[in-house]
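Protocol step 4 of 6.
Sequence for DUF2218 domain-containing protein (Sphingomonas kyeonggiensis) entered exactly as in the expression construct, tag removed. Do not edit the line below.
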Amino acid sequence: MTLTTFSAETLAPTDHASRYLQQLCKHWEHNLQVEFTPENGTVIFPKDARGADHPGDAVVTFNVAETGLDIRIDASSTEQLEGLKGAVERHLDRFAFREEGLKYDWK
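Step 5 output, structure tokens:
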């Protein structure tokens, strides 16, 4: 059986992309599968995280770009995708509290 992937990407403009990537990955590595360096990170959200019942796991990828933090979400359902967009934004905004709020233009 092949799962359909629902994806979205955004570039969150910031001068502190590496710092936020590392903070976020360290935060999530306590209860999720996480791999990261100062330049990129990957977080796997299990299909049954927080009592959910999605068709498959989701993967969130972070890459430091020249102008900010590039974020990609690959999910197994639109509900999972939308939920993770919100979770990523809320968590990053907490770490970026000194900035006036990061901008997210998901595509």
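Step 6, annotate. The first strand starts at residue 6 and ends at 13.
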